[in-house]
Amino acid sequence: MDVEILSRLQFALTIMFHYLFPPLTIGLGMVMVIIEMMWLKSGDITWKHAARFWTRIFAINFALGVATGIVMEFEFGTNWAAYSTFVGDVFGSALAAEGIFAFFLESGFLAVLVFGWDRVGPKFHCFSTIMVFLGSCFSAVWIVVANSWQQTPAGYHIVETMVNGVPMLRAEITDFWDMVFNPSSTIRLTHTLIGCFIMGGFASCSVSAFYLLKGIHEKFAKRSFLIGFTIATVFSLAALGTGHFQAVKVATTQPAKLAAFEAVYETKAAGIHLWGWPNSETKTVEGGVEIPGLLSFLVHGNTTTPVTGLDAFPEEDRPNVWIPFQAFHIMVGFGTLFVMLTLGTLFYLKGSKIFRTRWLLRIYMFMFLGAIITNQAGWIAAETGRQPWVVYPSVQNGVEMAGLRTSDGLSDVVVASQVAWSIALFALIYGLLFCIWVYVIKRIIQDGPIDDGVAISRESFFNPSGQRGASKDV
Amino acid sequence: MFDHTTLSMIWFVITGLLLLAYLVLDGFDLGVGILHPVARTEEDRQIMMNAIGPFWNGNEVWLVTFAGVLFGAFPVAYAALLSGFYILFMLILFCLIFRAVSLEFRSQVSNKLCRFFWDGCFWFSSVLVTMVFGIIIGNSILGVPLSENQTFMQSIGDQLNLYSILIGACLTSLFALHGSMFLFLKTEGELKKHIHTWTKRAFAIFLVLFLTTLFVTSDIAPRISEQVSTRPLLWFLVSLCGVAIASMFVSLLRDHPTCAFLSSSCTVGVISLLFCAVMYPTLIYSRIDPSLDLTIYNASSGEKSLNIMFIFALIGFPLIMTYTFVIYRVFWKSKPNSNGEY
Questions:
Q1: Which residue segment(s) compose the domain that A97 sits in?
Q2: What is the mean pLDDT of the segment spanning B69-85?
Q3: What residue numbers bound the domain in which B251 lies?
Q4: Is residue B221 over pLDDT 60?
Q5: What is the DSSP letter of A21?
Q6: A39, A110, A188, B327 - which has most CB atoms within 10 Å?
Q7: Is A89 on the interface with B (CB under 8 A)?
Q8: CA distances from residue A454 to A52, A444, B94, B340 in whole angstroms, order as listed
């Protein structure tokens, strides 16, 4: 295999693994802020125990987020040197801003959250939780802005600088705020954050549903479930809206991507497939069920207006269709499921019927997995649909700006064998990390929130569950 | 606000300070890892791991920020360094992750053999990551075959040259010393005495390696020895380094752990400043032709971008300083024990 495929594979593997953690910390951050505020307001010790429980889950996710995040940052330089040089001015400054504004905030106050239960007062603890949540959101802001700039570049020009007598092309910022608020960043950021909140909400529901089914920690579980459920309901609905507006945006800024999402091979009035198997050889979708005219209607408000198809682009500018198509449909499918499930559950809220409805709780127990799949699928669709460009070509003030092809972004000094062995080692080490993650989370859940009178003697990022019951014997 | 030349210098200073902060902070927890086999009992090992428990993850954030700022301010150098040292940087990544994994796994297993295995992994990854940092620094001082494409291709065999390995060993002994100072501060009783003997050993090894390095560097890297005669600042830093080392020695004799730790922090700090001062204004020396060097002027981002980042830094760093200070104050006083987290 050539170095391009391998580097893309490595990036995909490492970013997908990394993206298990940030959305969870962002989403759980919101859950924790709500719980800490309830604790502060009511003084009820159950809230404190709940906050403590979620902090433990948060901490392991943050630690893994940092460990796998360093990899992402380094890979820009190691595997994508030409890309780094080209976008450094824009992308690098966003990354630097992320480091300066987000990471220190998050990691610093996280120490207070995890180790400060007995050392700081409840108010300061609550404040720290808010700071951690803000920190995690800030990091999303900068990285999504940087990514959106690649999809819909703005506020820049391409200059030819001479470095040691050799000409070099690179993108330089001309207008910072145009760069930050490029055409897609607001809507993509909103949609991404909403996806994270849904993940946090469903994570809370899943754990609570597990306890409710087992009949343990019920007081904690009922409260956590309601908080998670509220977040999941509100943001599932919101995701439907932002998802729609984002698709409309993609139709104008990246028509080839939208065409890939729905396998629109020819420019014509297009429908939306419920499912299908796009075949790029025959340029048809096999075995699919299509609602005719719906895509045209959603994008243009009219069922007969044509949607730009892949035939409008030269062969070398078309993305692969199968992967974005399937990823997009998985995301939309699960998103719809979230809305139906949460709205349906509203009928079971009266008289707390939900807590006795075992089949529904069983569904909720697995919704966390659904949220992971949806977040991943959404990003797979967004990033594979962007190909073959790593930085999209654009028009700035009537001037056409060249894009950067993914194949032109590689490090010219790195050879395939080096990337091959680094992928192998990443696979091994990430396999180990994944085992740890599952194991630790399982242990935290098994231990459960502390019931009154049982103190925890050990807490840390990685061994947060500690030796329970040690103080019972004393 | 400022012109490109001034901004390039400002960003060189900021990047250098971030490197300094990272080496000082992660230096002590890597050092505790390097010293790990020194512990004689299971309890001691747990105390040592608990001592770095609240800090190591936060310390790594400085590496993330350092890399982010290097990327943003000097993208051309970032691209050249990371792609040119591909294998070395991958090793760093694997080691950092593996270190976290072994810290965790060791406390999860009770089997002696398993613990022994994970202890070994923890030690090995701490040593290797420090060595590799040193090797990268060594190669940067020596220079690399940087071509006119602003990249370089060098076999791993050439990168593992004797000089770089010497720098790696020197850094390892420095971190071991720094880590032992941290433990000296954080432990009590028998263990503290035991650490003390190892502090002395680390001190002796470091002193020998450091003097060798100073001596060899002026000999082996001609472009650096040129600077030594023209830049009084270098002599100032070297003597400052001497003062820090002497103060470390005195604090050890007088059994003053806080001073000792501060002195070792200063030593690490001054040595990283020395490295930056030796490099300035070059980021990557080209061995092929000095006119192909990547400097802070030709490898940096555009003026606009540097200006904006400077505003970020002006807002961001005072904030970071404030809350880092507050948070460290909450935690600094506590002593670890064996029934902590690891």
A1: 3-473
A2: 89
A3: 4-331
A4: yes
A5: S
A6: A110
A7: yes
A8: 13, 15, 39, 17
Whether a cis peptide bond, with omega within 30° of 0, leads into A153 is: no
Each residue of B263-283: pLDDT tens digit? 889 999 999 998 888 888 888
Q: Output b/e per residue, B40-49; b: 16+ Cβ within 10 A.
A: eeeebbbbbb
Measure the CA–CA gap between A285 and B129, rounded to whole angstroms: 51
CA distance A188 to A199: 17
Cβ under 8 Å to A: B residues 58-117: 58, 60-61, 63-65, 67-69, 71-76, 78-84, 86-87, 89-90, 92-94, 96-98, 100-101, 103-105, 107-108
Q: What angle do CA A218, A369, A433 make, to 5 degrees?
A: 100
β partners of residue B295: B282
Q: Per-residue pLDDT for B337 more than 70?
A: no
Residue B53 lies in a domain: yes
Estimate to the nearest angstrom the gap between the alpha carbon of B334 and the chain centroid. Answer: 25
How many domains does the structure of chain A reveal? 1
Cis bond before residue B75 (omega within 30° of 0): no
Q: For testing the chain A interface, which of B74, B78, B315 should be mutated: the one with the most A CBs within 10 Å?
A: B78
Interface probe for B, chosen from A164, A175, A414, A438 (most Cβ of B below 10 Å), is: A164
Q: What is the amino acid identity at position B243?
A: V
* Angle between helix A45-78 and helix B75-84 axes, rounded to 10 deg: 80
Tokens of A276: 């299908």
Question: Which residues of B are less than 8 Å from A88 in CB distance?
Answer: 71-72, 74-76, 78-79, 301
Query: Per-residue pLDDT averaged across B97-112, rounded?
Result: 77
Taking the Cβ of residue B294 and every Cβ of chain A, the question of whether any pair is shorter than 8 Å is answered with yes
What ipTM did this prediction achieve?
A: 0.86
> Is residue B88 domain-resident?
yes
Tell me what pLDDT residue B89 has.
Answer: 92
Q: Which of A178-182, B56-60, B259-263 has the lowest mean pLDDT?
A: B56-60
- Check A107 against B58: CB less than 8 A apart: yes
In a domain, B293, yes or no: yes
Residue pair A198/A239 in contact by the 8 Å Cβ criterion: yes
Residues 6+ apart with CB under 8 A from A28: A54, A57, A58, A61, A200, A203, A204
With a cut of 50, which residues of chain A have pLDDT below it? 452-474
Number of alpha carbons in the 13 Å side-chain half-sphere of residue A137: 17
Q: Is A292 on the interface with B (CB under 8 A)?
A: no
Interchain contact, A96 vs B63, CB within 8 Å: no
Asked if B134 contacts B210 with a C-beta cutoff of 8 angstroms, the reply is: no
Could you write out the three-class secondary structure of chain B?
CCCHHHHHHHHHHHHHHHHHHHHHHHHHHHHHHHCHHHCCCHHHHHHHHHHHCCCHHHHHHHHHHHHHHHHHHCHHHHHHHHHHCHHHHHHHHHHHHHHHHHHHHHHHCCCHHHHHHHHHHHHHHHHHHHHHHHHHHHHHHHCECECCCCCECCCHHHHCCHHHHHHHHHHHHHHHHHHHHHHHHHCCHHHHHHHHHHHHHHHHHHHHHHHHHHHHHHHHCHHHHHHHHHCHHHHHHHHHHHHHHHHHHHHHHCCCHHHHHHHHHHHHHHHHHHHHHHHCCEEECECCCHHHCEECCCCCCCHHHHHHHHHHHHHHHHHHHHHHHHHHHHHCCCCCCCCCCC
User: Do B65 and A115 count as a contact with CB atoms less than 8 A apart?
Assistant: no
Backbone phi, then psi, for A396, in 5-degree steps? -115, 120
Number of folded domains that form chain B: 1
Residue A173 Cα, gap to closest chain B Cα (Å): 6
Quick check: is B338 in a domain?
no
